[in-house]
C-alpha cells in the first residue's frame, strides 16, 4: 500500500535493534483516515472469505481493527488481553506470547463467550516481526475451534521471517507494507516489491 509506505518513509524512525518507530500515525497517535484506507484494502483482499470475527491483541491493534471492521459489515472486534483482571470472568482461552518490542513474555487471554467454534476469524495487528504474537492468536483460535481465514498486518518486517513462515504454513497474510531492510544509522527503509 503506497500510502502507508510513504508515511513510513516520511514519518517513521529506525532505531537500533531493528525497531521501526511509527507512533506519529500508527500506534500512539492514530491517523484514522489512514486506518480507514487500510481497512478498505483488507476488505478488498479478503472479499471472498467469510469473516464473522476480527481478532487482535491489545493495545496497538485495537484502533486499527475497529476502524477496519467498518468495512466488514457489522463484524465484531475481539481483542486478546495481555493480563488477567477482575473484569475477565467465566471460562477463558489463554496462551503466552513473546513480545519483540517489549522483550518479554506475557499471557494472552480471550473470554470463551467471544470466540467460538464455527467462527471465521480475521486476525489484524499493527506489526509482524517474528510472528510470536500472531502465533498466540492462532493458538487461541485453534483452542476455540475457530477458523483463521486470514491475517491483516499494517507493517511487516520481512527480514525477520515471521510472515514468510506463516505463509509457508498456508495462512493468507496480507501485509500492507513489508519492510525488506532498514538501517538505524542512515534511516534508510527499503520495501519488498
UniProtKB/TrEMBL annotation:
EC number in record: 2.4.2.22
Amino-acid positions noted as binding xanthine in the UniProt annotation, renumbered to this chain: 20, 27, 157
Annotated keywords: Cytoplasm, Glycosyltransferase, Purine salvage, Transferase
Major location (coarse): cytoplasm
GO biological process: purine ribonucleoside salvage; xanthine metabolic process; XMP salvage
Catalyzed reaction equations: XMP + diphosphate = xanthine + 5-phospho-alpha-D-ribose 1-diphosphate
One GO molecular-function entry: xanthine phosphoribosyltransferase activity
Family designation: Belongs to the purine/pyrimidine phosphoribosyltransferase family. Xpt subfamily.
Assembly notes: Homodimer.
Name of protein: Xanthine phosphoribosyltransferase
Lineage: Bacteria, Bacillati, Actinomycetota, Actinomycetes, Bifidobacteriales
